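Can anyone check this?
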Amino acid sequence: MSPTVATVLAAVNDEQLPEDVGKAGPIGLLLIVLLLIATALLVKSMSRHLKRVPRSFDAEDDDPRVVVPDTPAELLEERRQPGQDLLDNLRRAPRAIEPPRRGDDGRPETPRG
């Protein structure tokens, strides 16, 4: 070996590594393991919740969707929608909430009681 190669190798061997080199490895490994455990628990919980969800949200009605009239006269008369009677009654009813009444001075009266 030449003297220059020997001095370079001696300088590399004598070089000290900084204090913080190699300390992040165990902490990083611990974080990765904790994240994997948390992910596994979340997957298990989500699969348990998904088992409770129905396969289809379509309504399973036994009623026929097409209403066939019994007589030809029913074809010509207007069919009332469900709840139409209630809506008609509400439209004809007087207002349930009245605006505040004004006193002589123009201000609303305060409730007594």
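Reply from J.R.: I decoded it. The chain has one domain: 3-92.
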